[in-house]
Elongation factor P
Amino acid sequence: MASTNDLKNGMVLKLEGGKLWSVVEFQHVKPGKGPAFVRTKLKEVLTGKVVDKTFNAGTKVETANVDKRGMQFSYKDGENFVFMDMDTYDQLTIEPAVVGDAAKYLLEGFEALVATNDGAVLYIELPAAVELTIAETEPGVQGDRSTGGTKPATLETGAEIQVPLFVTTGEKVKVDTRDGSYLGRVK
């Protein structure tokens, strides 16, 4: 248990019957008239839903222990993803629903942060950008345009992104894992 006066960004709270909420931002407010309160913006850990919630100052809230560990993606076992803890070499099998869109940018040997609470995997977090090879793309033809054009390209993981016309098959590119955008070529 913690007090609302002890809130910090990133802290995970257990509210509303066991749902986990991460504190995105908070603000202690002491109005001229009336009691102090804490205004927060909370993000539900599992769904990503963001809500505003106000607590009276000093209210007790239950905190959740979320363990974030760096793990390496080992292989796919059927539909599931198997990650290995680099310190203990323990393997952890994670369902595709938990991995979500991160699966589009996962290659064997890639490292990710795996967040768990009481043994249950909450989510995985990839680095902001990863380097992947273009598996297939059409040759780009420069036409009459004033700005640079883009074309679709398939990555070695199977994900499809938009790349500039000069990128060719077999080139290594940097991709933003948050929105799948092309960030540049890798030398």
Observations:
- Residues 96-99 form the longest helix (4 residues).
- The mean pLDDT is 84.
- The chain has one helix and 16 strands.
